[in-house]
## 1
Amino acid sequence: MKKTKKFLKIAIDSPAAAGAGTLAKSISKHYNLYYLDTGKIYRMIAYLKIKFPKKFNQNFLKKKISLIKVKNLSNKNLLSDEVGTEASIISKNKNIRKLVHSFQVNCAYNPPKNFNGSCLDGRDITYKIVPDADFKFFITANLKTRAHRRYKELKKINKKILYKNVLKSIKKRDKSDFNRKISPLKKTKDSVLLNTTKLNKRACFLKIKKIIDRKLKT
Ligand code: C5P
């Protein structure tokens, strides 16, 4: 009898700049999974707030969110530190989280048919968006390493950026993401912890791949 392929769901949570996005992309490519960087949704909302402060209300957002396409989330304007900081502010809002919830759930559970499953990364993926994921990971790295990585990324789009400011904003974002009341960032008991401080991209990928392959074989 032909064995039906298992639909694979991978959920990843992590603090800012821990390497989760890069890792999630390579894992998604390897297993042909539909990838969604959920932080980009909050960044897009933050960008709209900065760009259209007067129009920014629930109805305006509802309309914009209904038009979200995953491909639009790769917009370069979403990468700045200013947008990241604003994203961590608007993401504390219960109504905003409600508005984007079904979009994320839909990407996780109903990805386009040509994919073998989905892989989402964010802050509340392992326990709120995909609580029954086949694999759950909590990716982290020490604060200075994360700040250095983000500084290098941001330097490409803004030559004037200072390391000390990037460090400050990552610290602030950590504080807010870990301590907020709604959907705080946390490592669930059933998530595998990966500290990427001393690992390069390839080593991270291989560690995660090993865990996935071991379980898939059984
Ligand atoms: O992942 P990224 O750094 O792009 O996320 C930007 C901000 O969006 C985070 O600092 C966090 O406050 C918020 N976020 C969230 N829940 C998610 C993903 C991101 O609250 N699932």
## 2
Amino acid sequence: MASLLTLEEAQALVLERARPLANEPVPIGTAARRVVAEDVRARVDLPPFASSAMDGFAVRSADLPGTLRIVGESAAGSPCERQLEPGCAVVISTGAVVPAGADAVVPVERVVREENTVEISESAAAGAHVRPRGGDVASGEVVMRTGAMLTPARLAAVAAAGVAMVECRRRPRVGILATGSELVAPGEPLRAGQIYETNGLMLDAALSAAGAEIETEPTAADDESVLREALERGLARDVLVTSGGVSVGEHDLVRAVERDLGVEEVFWRVSIKPGKPVSFGVRGDTLVFGLPGNPVSALVGCELFVKPALRALQGAAEPLPLFETGSLTIGLRRNEERDEFVRARVRTTAGEVLLDPIVGQESHMIVRSSAADALVHVPRGNGELAAGSAAHWLPLDG
Ligand code: AMP
Ligand code: MG
């Protein structure tokens, strides 16, 4: 057991081999969640013109306080073309061009408006409620760095900067293959010894959300020739993820068949719980993950190894899982040899993030696990993580 790879060593071996895929231009409308492959620069100043931050009146600050003559209107999309003369004001709306000559906006709530005049009893600083041209970003500046994933806000930033096509990494093509002679699809009647297939579905959902283009193979029985055919098809992708058949049982054939098909195994078994029998190999540029069949083990292996690899293939700056910090509500015994990932519910009380481990931590208990929002990392070692102590956790929302 002492010779097993640690989690960190195993993740490093995966990331060494997960080189970013080629770039492709992607229209902004379909670039959500894609990873930027070349710095994106603003095509325009942002805002492109001095604009009003409020609905109100554009004025010359030197005229205030005072009663000003209303000489026009600047609405969003319909600028007032004339120069603002002393003693005059222009009705202005949020986002409209501040006319030449004006240097401040007075909000409508602060004025008394008559038909053709506006009375303003306070003074205003030059620049008040004016968004200066280029105040967010100047034309030519970088709005998005290589490696950034286009979250909704980042997508908006790229669009605001006037960029219609973004160079992104190609999406990884991922083959998914669930193996096991006992597996049947939900909806079918269960015969003796059969269970419903869950992992293929779970991996499809998790990995699509992580940016992959999925091709799911039909579930394969624990039979050499069936496996050979299914694995060969899966190996044509950028990534192949299998579930089941990587343990030490007589019918665990996946690794042996992969070896026959030319997969070079990089590691097998990692000191984590659940998920120890996970395997990883390569054939050419294809990354090959063998997740254990127990659904919770497959889930943990997916979070710790497969999703980071997909992020790295897409050129993400930080591919490893980002853990958050919270407090344990009960003590957890540490495993001497293996890093454990305990399923927990997350709640917030008075600003503190509390982690309640769920009852039912065995790796086949997918229904109980499905109540959890978090994988809590219990590092290997002696003793326990006491109730109230800080722990790192990974959200289970993707
Ligand atoms: P294995 O890793 O093939 O030894 O499988 C370990 C356990 O996970 C066994 O109880 C299997 O029946 C179960 N299992 C394997 N694959 C799946 C799957 N795709 N969906 C649900 N359970 C599975
Ligand atoms: Mg099996």
